[in-house]
TrEMBL record:
Top-level taxon in the UniProt lineage: Bacteria
A GO biological-process term: methylation
Free-text function comment from the UniProt entry: Methylates ribosomal protein L11.
Similarity remark: Belongs to the methyltransferase superfamily. PrmA family.
CDD domains, per database record: AdoMet_MTases
GO cellular component, one term: ribosome
Protein known as: Ribosomal protein L11 methyltransferase
Keywords assigned by UniProt, alphabetized: Cytoplasm, Methyltransferase, Ribonucleoprotein, Ribosomal protein, S-adenosyl-L-methionine, Transferase
Subcellular location: Cytoplasm
Length: 304
C-alpha cells in the first residue's frame, strides 16, 4: 500500500479528507504537523473555557492528512486530480510532504494480540474468542472488544465482577438483577454465569443494547436488554458502573429499583468522590467502599 502525506491548513481538513475518500483513498487520518515540536498547541480548550478555533474546525493549525491507497497508480492519480483542483501555492494550499510504501500488516492479528484473557478471580476469566481459556479457568465469559464499553480490562468493571464472584453462593437465589448502564453486557452476563436469573440490562446507547444481546447469545445466557425505561420494579441486585456525576443524578431512580434488603453496587467512582456519592445515596442506602483499584472505588450497600 501507499501512504500519501499532505500538509493541509486546519480549515480545509474536512474538505480535503472528503475529496481523498472520493478519489479512492482506503482511509484518511489527521495528525498534528507540529506534534512534539515547540509549536505544538492543544486542540481542546480548558474545561469551561470557550472552544479553540482548532476545536471548532476539527483540525490542528497545521495538520498532516495521511491517505492510504491500494497502490502507487491509485495514489498518483488521486494526487494529480487533487492538485489540479487545488493548486499548490499559498497559505490555503495543500502541500505534498511525502509518498511512501507502507509494509503490509495483518491488522486483525495485530488488534487481537492486544487483548489477552483477563483474570477476574483465580478461576473466573474473560476470554476473547480467538484465545483458548487458560487451564486454571473454571468459569469463562467469552467476550470480544466491540463498540460498547466493557471488556474486563478496566478496574471499574473488574471490581463489579469480583463483587459478583464473591457473592457466587448467594447469586443462585437472585431471581432478578438490574444492570444499569450495561455497555457490552459484561456485568449482566457475569451475574448470569454465576446463577442469577431474570436479568434486565439497560443502557441509553442503542449500540450497547445490541452488543449486550449479541454477547449474551455468544455466552448462551438469557437476559433482557433494552433502553433504561425497560428497568421495571424491584430487584434484589442493582449494578451500575457509570460515572460519579450521572450516578449522583440517578440516585433516586436507582434506589427506587433496589428491593428491601437488596444490594446496590456502584462503580465508576474515583476515591476522592466517595463522600459526595455516599451523601447523595444516604436517604436510601448507606454506601461503603467495598473494593478499590487504581484510584477507583466500588461502593456497595443494602437497602433498609
Ligand atoms: C463505563 S460503561 C460500563 C459498561 C459495563 N457495565 C461495565 O461495567 O464495563 C457505562 C455505560 O453506561 C451508559 N450510560 C451512561 N449514562 C447512562 C444513563 N443515564 N442511563 C443509562 N445508561 C447510561 C453508557 O452508555 C455506557 O455504556
Amino acid at each position: 500500500m501507499i501512504e500519501l502525506l499532505l500538509l493541509t491548513p486546519a480549515a480545509r481538513v474536512d474538505e480535503i479528507s472528503d475529496i481523498l475518500m472520493e478519489l479512492d483513498a482506503l482511509a484518511v487520518t489527521v495528525e498534528d504537523a507540529d506534534a512534539d515540536t515547540p509549536d505544538e498547541a492543544p486542540i481542546f480548550g480548558e474545561p469551561g473555557m470557550p472552544a479553540t478555533l482548532s476545536e471548532q474546525i476539527r483540525g490542528w493549525q497545521r495538520s498532516v492528512l495521511k491517505a492510504l491507497f491500494e497502490n502507487e497508480d491509485a495514489a498518483t492519480e488521486a494526487l494529480t486530480v487533487l492538485l489540479a483542483q487545488d493548486g499548490m501555492a499559498g497559505a490555503d494550499g495543500v502541500h505534498v510532504q511525502s509518498m511512501q510504501t507502507v509494509a503490509e500488516q495483518d491488522w486483525v492479528r495485530l488488534t487481537q494480540s492486544q487483548f489477552d484473557p483477563v483474570p477476574i478471580t483465580g478461576q473466573f476469566w474473560i476470554v476473547p474468542s480467538w484465545h483458548e481459556p487458560p487451564a486454571e479457568a473454571r468459569q469463562v465469559m467469552r467476550l470480544d472488544p466491540g463498540l460498547a464499553f466493557g471488556t474486563g480490562t478496566h478496574p471499574t468493571t473488574r471490581m463489579c465482577l469480583r463483587w459478583i464472584a464473591r457473592h457466587a453462593a448467594e447469586a443462585q437465589g437472585w431471581d432478578r438483577v438490574l444492570d444499569y448502564g450495561c455497555g457490552s453486557g459484561i456485568l449482566a452476563i457475569g451475574a448470569a454465569l454465576h446463577g442469577a436469573r431474570g436479568i434486565d440490562a439497560v443502557d441509553i446507547d442503542p449500540a450497547a443494547v445490541e452488543s449486550t444481546q449479541a454477547n449474551a447469545a455468544a455466552n448462551g445466557v438469557t437476559l433482557t436488554a433494552g433502553l433504561p425505561e425497560r428497568a421495571d420494579g424491584l430487584y434484589p441486585v442493582v449494578l451500575a458502573n457509570i460515572l460519579s456525576a450521572p450516578l449522583k443524578l440517578l440516585a433516586p431512580l436507582l434506589c427506587s429499583h433496589v428491593a428491601p434488603g437488596g444490594h446496590l453496587v456502584l462503580s465508576g467512582i474515583l476515591a476522592r468522590q466517595t463522600e459526595e456519592l455516599q451523601a447523595a445515596y444516604a436517604p436510601w442506602v448507606a454506601l461503603e467502599a467495598g473494593d478499590q483499584e487504581d484510584g477507583w472505588v466500588l461502593l456497595t450497600g443494602r437497602r433498609a
